[in-house]
Amino acid sequence: DLPLTVIAGPCQLESRDHAEMIAGRMKEICEAAGAQYVFKASYDKANRTSVSGKRGLGIEAGLKVMEEVRAAIGVPTLTDVHAPEQCAAAAQAVDILQIPAFLSRQTDLLVAAGETGAVINIKKGQFLAPWDMANVVAKVESTGNSRILLTERGSSFGYNTLVADMRALPQMAKTGYPVVMDATHSVQQPGGLGGSSGGQREFAPVMARAAVSLGIAAVFIETHEDPDRAPSDGPNMIPLDQMGKLIDTLMQFDALAKANPIEI
Amino acid sequence: DLPLTVIAGPCQLESRDHAEMIAGRMKEICEAAGAQYVFKASYDKANRTSVSGKRGLGIEAGLKVMEEVRAAIGVPTLTDVHAPEQCAAAAQAVDILQIPAFLSRQTDLLVAAGETGAVINIKKGQFLAPWDMANVVAKVESTGNSRILLTERGSSFGYNTLVADMRALPQMAKTGYPVVMDATHSVQQPGGLGGSSGGQREFAPVMARAAVSLGIAAVFIETHEDPDRAPSDGPNMIPLDQMGKLIDTLMQFDALAKANPIEI
Amino acid sequence: DLPLTVIAGPCQLESRDHAEMIAGRMKEICEAAGAQYVFKASYDKANRTSVSGKRGLGIEAGLKVMEEVRAAIGVPTLTDVHAPEQCAAAAQAVDILQIPAFLSRQTDLLVAAGETGAVINIKKGQFLAPWDMANVVAKVESTGNSRILLTERGSSFGYNTLVADMRALPQMAKTGYPVVMDATHSVQQPGGLGGSSGGQREFAPVMARAAVSLGIAAVFIETHEDPDRAPSDGPNMIPLDQMGKLIDTLMQFDALAKANPIEI
Amino acid sequence: DLPLTVIAGPCQLESRDHAEMIAGRMKEICEAAGAQYVFKASYDKANRTSVSGKRGLGIEAGLKVMEEVRAAIGVPTLTDVHAPEQCAAAAQAVDILQIPAFLSRQTDLLVAAGETGAVINIKKGQFLAPWDMANVVAKVESTGNSRILLTERGSSFGYNTLVADMRALPQMAKTGYPVVMDATHSVQQPGGLGGSSGGQREFAPVMARAAVSLGIAAVFIETHEDPDRAPSDGPNMIPLDQMGKLIDTLMQFDALAKANPIEI
Fold this sequence. Notes:
The structure is a homotetramer of 264-residue chains. With 264 residues, chain A is of the alpha/beta class.
């Protein structure tokens, strides 16, 4: 029943300055609104639609930036890992390791992440039912680590389209772990632009608000000062200058939701 | 920006006494919560899963009960029509004619309903995209009637399952017409029990709250004092004695949503 | 284990001459290939995407043409019915009454059609699972009529898209009734052109061949001498001048399939 | 236009004797039927539903068995790889490296596999559209390797269900690469048994035949002498003693399909 946590940042790391600019601005916004803030960014985009899509700073330079942001801005941080051997280093540099949705059934990755002892945020695969996450969770728990977050980011719905089923949030909450709504990826149109993914940026606040009204633990939002120039996921990101008003509104819904818990 | 309207009632008419009991109780609940109330019931269930499913009182006796409820309880009423020739009589007896989802592309029915001049509530077909409703609306508008409501009740999602896409609500609102969330049918499991439809009653409040948080005009909820004995749709109905608390909570989310309109 | 039946014709009746031209040409093609032929056409398109879509000749003129085609060309005929009161007249004029997919759960229509004693071809709703058809069949059987055909025409798959599940064919065959593959509607893109439905004409032969290889009773194909000028369903129709080669090939697959029955 | 290739074997390697038994039997069956045969088995099941699911012999022991089977039985072999660093060793031991469906967008894995120069069989992700495979193919082609196969294994269709869209086969063939139908995984029910995946073994021959009738290059079938005791994927495997008749029938459909190519 803690107030909403906001996990936000650019899709991929661009530079230390850029990361600190966004983390700093988001920290101010969240503090003003009474939300806890976690900075999110990726050091590598390992599954771009196209081989020519930009992949980011790479693990070494990227994790260094993540450490600098954490130290300089004073916020907890999250990044995604794509292979078991990345987990230990990433867990040194950030607070939360994230398992990408496509990799949410890869046992070795889940176990390696769990073994670091870090908090593990598992994105539900686009091909999984909410109740399938009980088996996914058990893979991390097998390491003795029960610091787990579960994230909804949409289910495959025909071709090049996702749909976010609101039932998935209370359903995943039955595991006992905090549930996160990824408001920006759930409005992605995977592969929808041919050589890259499209998105429906305008619907991200819709997803965020509907989910927050159900009393979830956190919302995940990708943001950028100029989404149309972001190296990835621009079509579904929320512009940074709209985040203040959005978070503010979400916190009002969060307070009302936490005062009126839904019981399934 | 009016406060939320609640469209609620049993799935099918059972008797005058039963209808008045539910309408009376719901009227009290809605008045106490500051919601406008519309009584809903069906005189005929024309598309039961099984030929042996109960179909209701029939049009003549059913419409008579609808008139009596309106007069006795003093609430506007809604019923669904299944054929063009039923529209005129139904429009005499109730305030709102509803087009069932399966019939949402039947031109003659839409036109006949529109020609009555009554308010027309069109349920989006399980097989339609939200933007397809613009063509459906135009069929009613072709009669000169623009008193139209549009209802989300879920989209086909694999076999025996529906999913309610929250994006459909603001998308349909682009037509300029009020949007309704059918919180109970959207958690139906069509045909899921073999000879009848299953449902996930526990998720109906989830759907209602998520949708209301987006600032919709109305919520549609089927209710019964003993859902497990209701002649139809029992598995997804909300027990009548839980409606007070539910409506109360929804009105708080409605007030917050109306104060913070979403713009798409 | 009879040879494949081909149900084919234009989507909607245009004129007596046009109907007889197509019926005559198809009869020649089917006789040459060893297939039984049924002429199909609609006298009314009751659920066009848009209110301005052409609807056809109407029931009176349309049924008259259907009778003339049957007499002049000497082939059995099929047309679809949209309301219970149409069934008796339609059953006088044609051999097979077809229940449209959107209407496949409307009890009164199924019963009225069944009561005529005609053969009833029920198209599986885009919102139904194959096993749900057992309940649909029981509605017709309740009239004592067991001259039933079941047609696959695709399931909703996200927005504006259908997918035809090959499993549906043997699954529906478990009812004991002959199964038909609608090769042209299953490649429709419902509402996909905004004011009308799109289609993927090039994939219709793919659907037909895959289904025929499983040993089905009949294939349903809409055809036109100039699909791009057809008043409806042009995008998914097969040009008439390609039907000869297509039917010829399908008959070879049919013979092989009937010699190697699949048992589920 | 070569005759059909059959890629078949147990889901996971159990022992050298077991692998050789199946490879030997399948080789006989395929030779008798005129099909080319490729032995398939996995040394590791890296994405089991549950952490307690059996994973197989491991890479070292497993690749050794794969080499022994190839040498002893004299057939080409296929195995799947799950991480970039596995590719070089696997390419020494087998002829075809397979990219698992969940990993079909992981750029590093595709590139590492491509760089070995081996034939690469890419399974289409359950979350991808057929046309998305053009981008996947380009990742492998970026290494200069154009020895590529593309496999259909079903698309997500609601929860715990897959559907195989027959249009995907000619659509993927537009890339110019040979197309494979995975007849057993496409009838899988992912996660459908709670702690493991269910399946509909009886429909695997349906999928195989429908696909082969379209003139594909190869069919992929998992088989076991006692599927109910197989350590994984038992519910969708075909019993070994039914493979002779199945392959025999498929070859007849293949000959007919290759004589009547479909042009899209």
